[in-house]
Specification:
Rossmann fold, 2-enoyl-CoA Hydratase, Chain A, domain 1, six-stranded mixed β-sheet, N-(1-d-carboxylethyl)-l-norvaline Dehydrogenase, domain 2, alpha/beta, 48% helix
Length: 696
């Protein structure tokens, strides 16, 4: 016994090293130290003929302890441990099962032999944290699978299963039944045959598949991947492995790893990694096996698909027969498509589709555990639905509204059971987008809130609990962001210039292209119902003007851009430019050239300012919640960590200075700094260190 995380025992001449470090056997410093002690002890024991390394629980090793990356590396370093493991003169067998990622996969490569169970998921996801495999993956993986495939595995971060691992030569033997018993049997076969250690670093580096393989790998990187330094670092590290002795190449990888670890991009991605793992809200969730969905449109159908895929029984209600039929057809087509694309086998796709049934009246929802309303975004319509749901649904059933902007308390009041009501704001398409804003109403009970959060997790969503207020977190900030792009169009920037600048910053799509995709008439209707919208004739005037001229976006081929039939990207339209110029003249706005730097700064500072106010008001509980909403729901670049992390990167004193600059240049109407920003900047504080000053 070496400690609580690592146990060692002798199984008739086979040394067994068991890693038991819940929940995922991460290779934290105490685990590394105990592993090193274990292998040194077994190396010196003459009775031990071979060694089996086994991860207890559902996983082998799911990687490193990410918390350690914020501090200087602490010995024993993983690459030193793995070099010692590989150098042992007794065969080392890695008994792989379940999740085998990152440092766990590198440990597997440093072992002499690898056997695995059919549930294996093996990969190198370091790139998703802005890092590269720094413990030998860049020198060992190419020797086993070839340079091109190694680059693909490391730059994508996508794990592979048992079949691909065996085909690539990463797994020597597939195990059936108990993983440890099978690995022990495999080890005894190696001992009986006198099989010596087989060290991966003794293998020659393969000849590159193409003289230009590294340039080709760089060209193949997506625009988002190029913005993360680790992508180039991986390619450079493998390039070094192809040209130098493995120890020199490993030193190059270590240098690159440490530089990436300190980079803003990696810190941003690690920030999101932890933000996504915030504990569930207090309260015991109620069991949910049956779900009702009101509204069979695109949103309702998407929610139904997500619920059925997660194994829930779904009743989809729409009082319009044609709409219900279209929704059920949309759902059936989805499951046919996912089977055709190989994402679900035939039986699973058929079973998921069969879990959805249609109904024409709300009475069909009487027995369900939870209802999600997804009807037209109208307070009057939603209140009417909730009045009937309050009478129809069984006592204790959770009633959720999918509103994106409306007052959840006003909707809840119509049900006469507001304690059962919660907001569940899905993002479209609901079966694809991971964000779920969970809106706490004034009377929402902790159990109802916890039930909504648990359901979101079951559906594979990133749930963020927010307070009740117009637009909640995401859409309220969207209006601040959009406000500036609309004003700049009147002031002289074209729709294309704005979209190009923000896409170059890293946004998934420019705001004008997003508006066309969503439908400009949707936002137009919301603004008509917004009772306390800014009293400013310039506010969203360009979008409103386009709708008033019949330009609705992609749905009718004309919005900010013109779209050819079937095209997803539009082209600039001189008619739009003329409309904007005429409107600016009518409003008395002097036009000028606006550069990309100002476009990005005004839009991002507007996001930051509104996010800070949401923290002040308690609509958002923590800065990282704001970042989750914008990275998962609105395409903010993950390598920048979200608007609040970006503010900390810029420095709050700088943010305050630039907001004051725009207050002087553009007027204080939209540019008065929040009181808390002034206080935080004066203290030299960071938003990441601050809790909400209000209460959600």
């Amino acid at each position: 016994m070496t400690g609580p995380a690592v146990r060692v025992r002798d199984e008739r001449g086979i040394g067994v090293v068991e890693i038991d470090h819940p929940p995922v056997n991460a290779l934290a410093r105490p685990v590394r130290a105990a592993l090193l002690e274990a292998i040194e002890r077994l190396a010196e024991d003459p009775a031990v003929r071979a060694i089996v390394i086994h991860g207890c629980g559902r996983h082998f090793i799911a990687g490193a302890d990410v918390r350690e990356f914020d501090a200087p590396p602490a010995p024993p370093l993983l690459h030193e441990l793995l070099n010692r493991l590989e150098a042992l003169d007794k065969p080392v067998i890695a008994a792989l099962h379940g999740t085998t990622l990152g440092g766990g996969a590198e440990l597997a490569l440093a072992s002499h032999y690898r056997c695995a169970t059919p549930d294996l998921s093996l990969g190198f996801p370091e790139i998703k944290l802005g890092l590269l495999p720094g413990a030998g993956g860049t020198v060992r993986l190419p020797r086993l699978v070839g340079i091109r495939r190694a680059l693909e595995l490391m730059t994508s971060g996508t794990p592979i299963g048992i079949a691909a691992a065996r085909e690539l030569g990463l797994v020597d033997h597939e195990l059936r039944g108990d993983v440890l018993a099978g690995a022990l049997a495999f080890a005894r076969e190696r001992v009986a045959a006198g099989t010596p250690p087989r060290r991966t670093t003794d293998l020659p580096m393969p000849v590159p598949e193409s003289p230009a393989v590294f340039d080709e790998a760089r060209t193949a990187l997506s625009a988002a991947a190029r913005r993360v330094p680790a992508s180039e670092a991986i390619i450079a590290a493998v390039e070094a492995a192809a040209a130098r002795p493995w120890r020199e190449a490993l030193a190059v990888a270590r240098e690159r790893f440490d530089a990436c670890r300190r980079s803003t991009e990696s810190r941003a991605l690690r920030h999101l990694f932890f933000a996504e793992r915030v504990p569930a809200p207090g309260g015991a969730p109620q069991p949910v096996a049956t779900v009702g969905i009101v509204g069979a449109g695109t949103m309702g159908s998407g929610i139904a698909i997500a619920a059925a895929t997660a194994g829930l029984e779904v009743t989809l209600v729409d009082t319009q027969a044609a709409a219900l039929a279209a929704g059920l057809e949309r759902i059936a087509r989805h499951f046919t498509d996912v089977h055709r694309k190989g994402r679900l086998d035939a039986a699973a796709a058929a079973a998921a589709g069969a879990r959805v049934r249609g109904a024409a009246t709300l009475a069909a929802l009487a027995p369900v555990d939870l209802v999600i309303e997804a009807v037209f975004e109208s307070l009057e319509v939603k209140r009417a639905v909730f009045a009937e749901l309050g009478r129809t649904c069984r006592p204790g059933a959770v009633l959720a509204t999918n509103t994106s902007t409306l007052d959840v308390d006003a909707i809840a009041a119509a049900s006469d059971r507001p304690a059962d009501v919660v907001g569940m704001h899905f993002f479209s398409p609901a079966h694809v987008m991971r964000l779920l804003e969970i809106v706490r109403g004034r009377d929402t009970t902790p159990a109802v809130l916890a039930t909504a959060f648990a359901l979101g997790k079951r559906l594979g969503k990133i749930g963020v609990v927010v307070g009740n207020g117009f637009g909640f977190v995401g859409n309220r900030m969207l209006y601040a962001y959009g406000r500036e792009k609309e004003l700049m169009m009147l002031e002289g920037a074209s729709p294309t210039e704005i979209d190009r600048a923000l896409e170059a910053f890293g946004m998934a799509m420019g705001p004008n292209a997003v508006g066309d995709l969503a439908g400009l008439d949707v936002g137009y209707a919301v603004r008509r119902a917004w009772t306390d919208r800014p009293d400013d004739p310039r506010f969203y005037r360009v979008s409103d003007l386009l709708v008033e001229h019949g330009r609705l976006g992609q749905k009718n081929g004309r919005g900010f851009y013109r779209y050819e039939p079937g095209a997803r990207r539009g082209t600039s339209d001189p008619e739009v430019e003329a409309l904007i110029r005429a409107e600016a003249e009518r409003l008395g706005i002097a036009r000028r050239a606006i550069g990309a730097e100002e476009i990005v700064e005004r839009c991002t500072l507007a996001l930051i300012g509104e996010g800070i106010r949401l923290l002040e008001e308690g609509i958002a509980a923590r800065a990282s919640d704001v970042d989750l909403v914008w990275c998962h729901g609105y395409g903010f670049p993950r390598e920048r960590g979200g608007p609040m992390f970006h503010a900390d990167t810029l420095g709050l004193a700088h943010v305050l200075d630039r907001i004051r600059h725009y207050a002087s240049a553009c007027g204080p109407r939209y540019w008065t700094p929040a009181a808390s920003l002034e206080q935080l900047a004066a203290r030299g504080a960071r938003l990441a260190d601050e809790a909400s000053t209000g209460a959600t």
